């Protein structure tokens, strides 16, 4: 999503990038945004805003609490996101919302209420492609769902099995 925002910004679009507070803190502490983006006007062309995710501050989002995170986002983030869009509209009315596919449940109804077009955009990586390509085979040979009482933790053994499966399939 950052790359898409960067490309739109280079096309002289005004961008407001909205993250959860947790993701925003991580982004700001691990990225030099001023050198990452070739901004036309750093004060107005590219803005970063954050909204709460509803989790306790000491509880970082993870795979293990993903459902809790989504439930909290639905309750907490929707009204805050709506208010954020309204407040941004005071300065410059949003002409479009591009939302990550996973977060579409937060944005679609709000965008419709405010009369703002919305595009859901699912970022994709080679690992997603690989997983989608192989998932049916992994299910077929019994690797997914994980056999026995195995907890969902990535381990070297699992990765070794995955590699062996792909080699066995001739990929």
In short:
GO terms for molecular function: quercetin 3-O-glucosyltransferase activity; quercetin 7-O-glucosyltransferase activity. This protein is mainly alpha-helical.
Structure, explained:
The structure is a single chain. This protein has 171 residues and is mainly alpha-helical. The chain has 2 domains: 2-121, Rossmann fold, CATH 3.40.50; 126-168, no CATH class. 51% of the residues lie in helices and 12% in strands. It has helices at 2-10, 21-30, 33-36, 66-91, 104-114, 126-140, 156-168, and strands spanning 15-20, 46-51, 97-100, 118-121. The strands form 2 sheets. Strands 1-2 form a two-stranded parallel sheet. It has a two-stranded parallel ribbon with strand order 3-4. Helix 5 links the parallel strand 3 and strand 4 (118-121). Helix 4 (66-91) runs parallel beside helix 5.
Secondary-structure arrangement, i.e. CATH architecture of the largest domain: 3-Layer(aba) Sandwich
Report low-confidence residues grouped into runs of 5 or more: 152-158, 162-171
Q: Radius of gyration from the CA trace?
A: 20 Å
Biggest sheet details: 2 strands, parallel
**Assigned CATH class of the largest domain:** Alpha Beta
Q: Tell me the domain tally.
A: 2
Q: Tell me the fraction of residues in β-strands, as a range.
A: 5-15%
Tell me the number of helical segments per DSSP (H or I, 4 or more residues long): 7
Mean pLDDT, all residues: 72
What shape does the CA trace take? globular
Total beta strand runs: 4
By helix and strand content, what is the structural category? mainly alpha
Instruction: Return the string of H and E elements.
Output: HEHHEHEHEHH
